[in-house]
Design a protein that fits this description.
The complex is a heterodimer of chains A (about 180) and B (about 80). By secondary structure, chain A is mostly helical. Helices cover about 65% and strands about 0% of the residues of chain A. In chain B, helix 1 packs antiparallel against helix 2. The termini of chain B are close together. Classes of the chains: A mainly alpha (about 180), B mainly alpha (about 80). At the A-B interface, helix 4 and helix 8 of A face helix 1 of B. Chain B: Keywords: Capsid protein, Virion.
Chain lengths: ~180, ~80
């Protein structure tokens, strides 16, 4: 089971709305290497794992990814709050706005809705953990790309935190290969 | 930063430390140093959470102690900038 805590893992406090940035960052919500895909990947893979430490790792990292999913949602919520119609039209956010207004919905930056086809659960410890390590690196690259595109320090700060977590998770996922 | 946010920020720091130790212990279950650190930060967190919930309301629903109001639903929620 899970229990919700009424706080973010790391603060998100964005002063200036920016629909153009929201259009990019939404990929970490519902895109191929996003936080939802990460969470579901790990939480689904747990059942095929033979070792306690790997079951623990997938449970705990899968749970942390849900907290990251919430952080990305908070970034999107704050970036799209109080936008004027002019800003919505000028930023290209209008193609999202027509379907979702400013509601938070998991899509990739391209507009493709979230799909479980983004991840695997193969029932094989070696295959799954290798996929998980690759997934952490793909998410890290996406965060690097977001940092290339975003100049607002209020946005960069939580994005850098999330980027660092990918590196820590990658490190942890690699460790069972050495101890087992 | 107001007092509420300062205390919440302290809890977040303890939680982050505990999360890091948790993941580390998953793959190093016999590390006594990490186990001792986990115990230490768990206590610090528990004291900070107790103070926070007393003064500013619950972080989880079972922490509601008010007998008149279900304070769980009070603003702000985490995604709101306050």
């Amino acid at each position: 089971m899970w229990q919700y805590e009424k706080k973010l893992q790391y603060p998100v406090k964005i002063k200036t709305p920016n629909a153009k940035l929201a259009k990019i960052i939404i990929s970490q919500l519902g895109g191929p290497d996003g936080e939802l895909s990460a969470s579901l990947r790990y939480l689904n893979q747990r059942y095929a794992m033979p070792y306690g430490e790997v079951k623990g790792l997938l449970t705990d990292i899968g749970t942390e990814e849900l907290a990251h999913f919430e952080m990305i949602s908070a970034i999107l919520y704050q970036l799209t709050k109080d936008l004027s119609m002019e800003e919505i039209k000028a930023s290209g956010f209008d193609t999202y706005f027509v379907d979702h207004t400013t509601g938070v919905y998991p899509v990739a930056a391209s507009g493709t809705p979230f799909t479980a086809a983004y991840f695997q659960s193969k029932g094989d410890i070696l295959t799954d953990i290798q996929e998980d390590m690759a997934a952490e690196q793909k998410a890290r690259t996406t965060y690097d790309n977001i940092l290339r595109l975003a100049d607002d320090p209020d946005v960069r700060d939580p994005i850098r935190f999330l980027r660092e977590r990918e590196i820590v998770h990658y490190q942890r996922f690699g460790e069972p290969f050495r101890s087992r | 930063m107001n007092e509420r946010n300062m205390l919440l920020s302290r809890i977040k720091k303890y939680d982050f430390t505990l999360k890091e130790l948790n993941l580390y212990l998953d793959t190093h279950p016999n590390c006594r140093r990490a186990l001792a650190m986990f115990r230490k930060y768990k206590e610090l967190r528990s004291d900070a959470v107790e103070e926070f919930t007393k003064r500013f309301g619950p972080i989880t629903p079972e922490q509601v102690s008010d007998t008149q109001n279900w304070t769980w639903v009070e603003d702000p929620w985490p995604w709101e900038r306050r």
